[in-house]
Amino acid sequence: xxxxxxxxxxxxxxxxLLAVLIDPxxxxxxxxxCFFEKIHNSIATHIFIGGSTDKDNQTESVVMAVxxxxxxxxxxxxxxxxxxxxxxxxxxxxSLLSGRNxxxxxxxxxxxxxxxxxxxxxxxxxxxxxxxxxxxxxxQKVSNTKPISQExxxxxxxxxxxxEFSGKQLIYLEAxxxxxxxxxxxxxxxxxxxxTVPLIVGGGIHTKKQLEDAFNxxxxxxxxxxxxxxxxxxxxxxxx
Length: 240
Ligand code: 1GP
Known about the structure:
By secondary structure, the chain is α/β, with parallel strands linked by helices. 40% of the residues lie in helices and 18% in strands. Strand 1 (17-22), helix 2 and strand 2 form a beta-alpha-beta unit. Helix 6 runs parallel beside helix 7 and helix 7 (185-194) runs parallel beside helix 8 (208-217). The site of SN-glycerol-1-phosphate has 14 residues, from strand 8 and helix 9.
């Protein structure tokens, strides 16, 4: 499976991708088969697994249970190095470019390097940019960084470009889990018009209209987690 090449091909063909985000702390292992029946009837194309924290070290068990149920690519979206498991297919190798905390810019990545060197995971360098979603999110608290205001459009654009020029293969605009304000269409349009790598957008999306707005503005992948945690019947609205 070449996850990244498939994302690039989808972008070229204008095919939009939907990632379902599973937070291992919130997922009951017994519920996974039932959840995936619904996922497979929906337009979801990717599974992201991760959270800002994983207090019970559940990530590996969740990944294994998910891999039993699906052939969709299973990609780690780790809050820190402790969430790496070689049971997944790939990993978003994140650098928190909006923040100025060296721990999440490079230190966690150095800690992850020897583990990833021997893991069969596809590594996808990702520029992770926190955008103000009008709610203090777990990522902000854990990383001890501030998001970029949605008004600072030039700053967001230049941060995205700097990410691409430093070799990031994906740029991820993140309003934060459960954000009350999603990343605006203007920002998505501006960034997607200027970068050449695929663009991921997530945080606070909980209606079909918001999903379509993000796609129409230029998001190549949209990530949804909280909306499915609150109401799995939302997957029926997103039927194939
Ligand atoms: C969070 O972008 C993801 O990291 C998804 O956000 O949980 O609000 O859908 P939600």
